[in-house]
Amino acid sequence: MNWTDERVEKLKKLWSEGLSASQIAAQLGGVSRNAVIGKVHRLNLPGRAKAGGTTTAARTPKRGATAPRAPTYASRVATRTVTRQQGATMLKEEIEIDAVSEITYRPASNVVVPISRRLGLTELTERTCKWPVGDPLKDDFHFCGNDSPDSSPYCTYHQRMAYQPVHERRRNNG
């Protein structure tokens, strides 16, 4: 099956109307659902809402390496018109979906990171911080080694990173 200009235009039209890949394949005839999905990707057509997910205005090309950042997300409700089948009739209806927007993370400026004592595994004691630093397969791997309270394997700084209060975990996990 060849993708003629006419068939590609019909694909674009049906895709923009919100039809599924299966429905488009049935209307075009002689083409599978997977072929439609592949052509949509190659044409870089705008994405659509996923169940409980985000709406993407258009496929964005992958970016080069940038500085890592930890985004947080805020949820908002958006209305979207979708087409669904009921019996032999296609119905259009408006539904509410949760859209997710990115919020930029700004770390606190008053955080002081302690200087690591850079201890090896054999140098650790029950009163030193056992927080691993770096890649264990590299030569510069070490442990924090700062003083730790009596009942903890970590120093005060690394305790805050390792242990979250229960109410924080519940809020973060939904």
Fold and architecture overview:
The protein has 174 residues and is of the alpha+beta class. It folds into 3 domains: 1-48; 49-56 and 70-105, no CATH class; 121-173, no CATH class. Helices cover 26% and strands 20% of the residues. It contains 5 helices and 4 strands; from the N terminus they run H-H-H-E-E-E-E-H-H. The protein has helices spanning 5-16, 21-28, 33-43, 156-162, 166-173; strands spanning 72-86, 89-103, 132-133, 142-143. Helix 2 (21-28) crosses helix 3. The longest helix is centred in the first third of the chain and has 12 residues, at 5-16. It is elongated and about 70 Å long. The model is unreliable at 51-60 (pLDDT under 50).
Secondary structure topology:
Blueprint: H1 5-16, H2 21-28, H3 33-43, E1 72-86, E2 89-103, E3 132-133, E4 142-143, H4 156-162, H5 166-173
Antiparallel strand pairs: 1-2, 3-4
Helix pairs in contact: 2-3
Oligomer description? single chain
Alpha carbon gyration radius: 26 Å
- Coarse shape: elongated
Question: Gap between N and C termini, in Å?
Answer: 47 Å
Mean pLDDT: 76
State the domain count.
3
Helix-strand sequence: HHHEEEEHH
Low-pLDDT stretches: 51-60
> Count of helices?
5
Q: Looking across the biggest beta sheet, what order are the strands in? A: 1-2
Question: Using DSSP, what is the number of strands?
Answer: 4
What amount of the residues lies in strands?
15-25%
- Biggest β-sheet: count, sense, barrel? 2 strands, antiparallel
SS class: alpha+beta
Helix content: 25-40%
InterPro entries: GcrA (IPR011681)
Region (Disordered): 47-70
Pfam family, one: GcrA
Organism: Rhizobium miluonense
